[in-house]
Amino acid sequence: MEPLKHVKCTGPHDFEVWYCHLYQFANEQGVWKYADPDQPDTLELPEEPTLESVTEQEVAKRAQKYAQDCAERDLRIEQAKQEQLKRVNAQRFDRALSSLGASHLSSSNNPFQDTPNTTPGSGTPTPKPEDIPEVALPPPLTKEELTELFKAAQERYKSNKKSIADARAKCAHVSAWIRKSVDRRIMDATLIEIHQMGRTDLKAQISVLRRDFTPSAFCDNYIGVVPALRSARTGAYPALDHVSLPGASRSIPTKSNRRRRNRQRAREPL
Questions:
Q1: 170 three-state secondary structure
Q2: C-beta of residue 194 within 8 angstroms of C-beta of residue 200
Q3: Percent of the chain predicted with pLDDT > 70
Q4: How many Cα atoms within 13 Å fall on the side-chain side of residue 219?
């Protein structure tokens, strides 16, 4: 569903309404995450997988899994040692009570007497450090495993490629609506700026428009550029690289701006 044709962006006074229609349109197309300047999502296609890249990824994955298992084993050994030390200290405390003739005291007075010897969160007895087995090294990759992994990687690449192509087509549709609904002079200036930035994507267009025409960022400091932009044609903005945009924000010269400028000129001495 395309936004209403009468929705236009001619300056900051109607930018918010236009931006709401843009958000709704891009969201319905499912590409707002690629258009929103605040989101990191991009439409960059990942590199096509090769047998070497798939092998490297799988080797790194298995090596990481082995390192994680070793770290978990070290943690279990440390917990088992702490539990073992608690038991030893509790026995020492009991022997001290017996030596002092106070063996009749309750075991609750023993500061080392803790809850039953269990693994935290599991309810099972904590094993001794020497009973915790070593982590087995990952086996080498076989030719059959590599073949299956490579096929799966190619299928994912084809699926991602198709999804990105569909998203790019929808982004182009949204971009075309933006060019139609934004004032010609504003759009030409925006295209010049993003071209000078080395970008042509939808997110760059929206970022520049939102920066310049939100009420807090709006100011009129490119009046001198407008005459050069009036002769521009859609798609011909690369030929206007010589036009520089002064300042960080811009506005279209409205009637009030022109009146103010004429009054300033009238006060200037001849």
A1: helix
A2: yes
A3: 68
A4: 8
The letter for the amino acid at 38 is: D
Is the model more confident about 182 or about 88?
A: 182
- Could you give the dihedral angle defined by the CA atoms of residues 125, 130, 135 and 136, in that order, rounded to the nearest 10 degrees? -120
Q: Mean of the pLDDT values across residues 201-212?
A: 89
DSSP string, 119-131: -TTT-SBPPPGGG
pLDDT at 176 over 60: yes
Residue whose C-alpha is closest to residue 211's, from 241, 247, 239:
247
- Cβ-contact 251, 229 below 8 angstroms: no
Higher pLDDT, 228 or 209: 209
The secondary structure of 221-236 as a DSSP string is --GGGHHHHHT--TT-
Average pLDDT (82-97) is: 82
Closest CA to 204 of 217, 218, 214, 190: 190
Bridge partners (DSSP) of residue 9 are 182
Report whether pLDDT(155) > 90. yes
Per-residue b or e along 60-77, where b marks 16 or more CB atoms closer than 10 Å to that residue's CB = eeeeeeeeeeeeeeeeeb
Is the pTM of the predicted complex or chain greater than 0.70?
A: no
38 in the Ramachandran plot: left (φ > 0), alpha (ψ -120 to 50) or beta? Answer: alpha
Going by C-alpha positions, the residue among 58, 59, 45, 62 that lies closest to residue 149 is 58
The predicted pLDDT at position 2 comes to: 57
pLDDT at 43: 81
Q: How far apart are CA 217 and CA 212, in angstroms?
A: 6
